[in-house]
Every structure is written in C-alpha cells, then in structure tokens.
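Lab notebook page, bench 4
Experiment: in silico fold of construct C2
Operator: M.H.
Input chain length: 307 residues
Purpose: comparison with the prior construct
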Amino acid sequence: MAPMASSTATFLSTLASSTATASLNTTSGGSSGKVVRFLPASPAESSRRRLAMLPPPRAAVSGTEKASAAADKDKEERVVQVHSSEEFDAALEAAKNRLVVVEFAASHSARSSQIYPTMVQLSRTCGDVDFLLVMGDESEATRALCRREGVTQVPHFTFYKGAEKVHEEEGIGPEQLAGDVLYYGDSHQAVVQLHSRGDVEALIDEHRGEAGKLVVLDVGLKHCGPCVKVYPTVVKLSRTMAETTVFARMNGDENDSCMEFLRDMDVVEVPTFLFIRDGKIAGRYIGSGKGELVGEILRYQGVRVTY
C-alpha cells in the first residue's frame, strides 16, 4: 500500500477547523442533519480547498517532545486512509477473515468530522478489526471507488469480511457504530460463536447434567437491526453471569447448516434467545428488550422474577 498522503490526525484537525464551502451538494437529512452527495469540484473550488486544508503553523518542539508525539501518533493511526481502488482492494485482501470497517467521508462534511473520533477510539480498543478511511472528494480515484461501492452520501460505513460486504449503514451515531463493530467483530471470548449445527450440539453436550450451566443461544441474522441493538447487552451479560450461564451466538443466514438449525428449532423471528438446560430447550424469548431479556435469563436460572 502506498504511503498515506496525510496522517489521520492531520485529517481530523482539517475536518474540525475547515469552514470553506464544499464542492458537494448538501441536502437536508431531517432530524439526522445534513448528508453530502459527491459532485466534481470546479478548478477554482479545488484550489480554495487545497488552501483551506493547509495545516496551521506549529511551535518548535524538542527532540524528546517529537519522539513522544510520534509514539502517540502511532497509537492513533490504526485508521488507514486509502486513496484508490487498488489500495482499497489490497487492504481487504490483507485482512483475510478479519472484520474491516470502512468510513467513506468528505473533507467538508460536519458529520464526518463528528463521527471520526469514534473510529479512532474503536481502532485503539479493537485490535482484531481493521479500520479504513476513504475521502470521497479527495480525487477522481476516490470518487470512482465510492461509485463502485455504491456510496452516494457521507458519512457511510461499510463492513467487510473475507473481502465481501456484510453490512452497511449511513447517518449513524457513535453508539450505533460501536454496536455494529461489536456485533460483526466475531471475536468476543465471553460469547461462544457457533457456525454450524455441530457447534450447537457440542456446546449443549458440554453442559448436560447437574454441573452444566444454563445455555443462552442468541439466534439472529447478519442484516438484523434489532439483533445488532441487543448484542452489546449479550456481551455484558456474558461477562457478569459467566459463573452460571454460557452465552452463544449463531447467525442463521451464515450457511445452510445454520439455516437448517433455525428451521428445526422453529425460529421464525429474530432475535430469538433459546434457553437450554441439561440438553433441552426450557424456553425462548423473542425480541431485543434489554430488561425483558435479563428477566427471562434470571427466570431460567431459578431466580423468582416479579413483573
């Protein structure tokens, strides 16, 4: 991959300080603010943009301060900016089966500026996820990439695994972005990831008998908003209830084996939570209500719950 034209830290500073008018057509997005559509910039506007993006003068610093700043910068820059389709494809290929989160942004989009610090923070805490940044109005190459990926508004987030698109959203806030990364990241040790009927049967067999724990199986689909919404609660509960309960997850549309399991379990709505005790399904909860889910888990743990 070619070197980055400018650091993500410089980019963030540019977004925060830029007040020039974008060569993009902005349309009202109702309560969610403005969205930005890509249009070619005029030569005069391109010149003004370059001037607007020049960094401000900085005070001189000592060698020690420079080394410290460089170390801090390295910590931040797990968000990699790509400048062409070739760089983009190479990054997806290098990631293999890791989750790749891509933000498609624009230099004068206020909402891109607002959500970008969340990308940086997530990149620091999610070491098993790759984060990419595409500035849609940077060049004709990035505009072509946006067209190829079907991006017409920014900020736009796309999630890839194995170089295949698994999810995309636009106009979301920090909390939802973090939830999406958590849901599609697929490597939360406290939640057992199940990918086939055989995985489910092995987990159930492991917890048969009096010494076995309650198994809570979260059954969902890849493109399911309520499934994404409730998943952070599942992760938290899996940590706080680890001594008595095992939490597992299966996406029914992952493969034929998973879909067959859903049919056999009569799962017709998602998310569905199956409560399994000693090899048998003791009950189920359908929905994404956090309080209701906790109440049902406690009930099947033998705790008396009064509604």
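Observations: Residues 79 and 135 are 12 Å apart (CA to CA). Confidence is low (pLDDT under 50) at residues 1-41, 46-62, 67-71.
Next step: discuss at group meeting.
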